[in-house]
Amino acid sequence: MQLIANVSLLFTERPLLERIPAAAASGFDGVEIQFPYDSDPVLIAQAARGCPVHLINAPAGDPDSGDVGLSTDASRVDAFRAGMEDARRYAAILDCRKVNVLTGRPPAGQPRDVTWRVLVENVRSLADAVAPDGRRVMVEMVNPIDVPGYFIDNLEDALDLIDAIDHPSVSLQFDIYHVARTEPDMVAALYRAGGRIGHVQFADHPGRNEPGTGEIDLAAAFRLLRSLGYDDAVSAEYHPAARTEAGLGWMAEARAALGL
Length: 260
Description:
By secondary structure, the chain is α/β, with parallel strands linked by helices. It has helices at residues 16-25, 41-47, 77-94, 112-130, 155-165, 176-182, 186-193, 218-227, 251-257; strands spanning 2-6, 30-33, 53-57, 98-101, 136-140, 170-175, 197-202, 233-236. Helix 3 runs parallel beside helix 4 and helix 8 (218-227) packs parallel to helix 9. The termini are close together.
């Protein structure tokens, strides 16, 4: 297992290219970047020597227009496929093993069966494109409290989506924070997701801040992940309550729980 940092949320006191070495200096084993597309991928790869990039998101549209994903919109399949090529190029240059797809909000009036079909086809197409390079595609649920209208907003729909895609290179991105907002029993949720988990993110709840600021027993969740056979990255994806380095006191317990 590896304990990594989401440098789109952590170390934001610095420019992106300085966040990766800062994460390494703080004891993280690697990083993930939500949307690296405003930076030169060659420069990111140089900054990430010795601290690998594990995951990026596929382009998700224009956030200023309210986009949180393109993969469910039947009228924007071409835009998704163009973003897919950008994701594939960045993942190759960064030697990044995983690409996450945000489902976003389907357009008003689009029938659910159409939304489901377009989503399955889009994710399968991306998986077909990156699998020959040994890369994987993640899909995740995002809670409807933080992001109203998000299409995959509960764990059962996320698991059903993975079953419908039925691709060996597609797995679940299990975000402990989002699951905590919708599931009454984290242990049961982890057991249900089980072997379909391909990537893990975490923040405490409530607040989406660092571990120890809320109610989630993250150490217990990490130990259960180990017992379920998960042996990949676990990513800190939270909003630091203050300067990032000032809130890293949780790392020693987390690394122990992860067996690191």
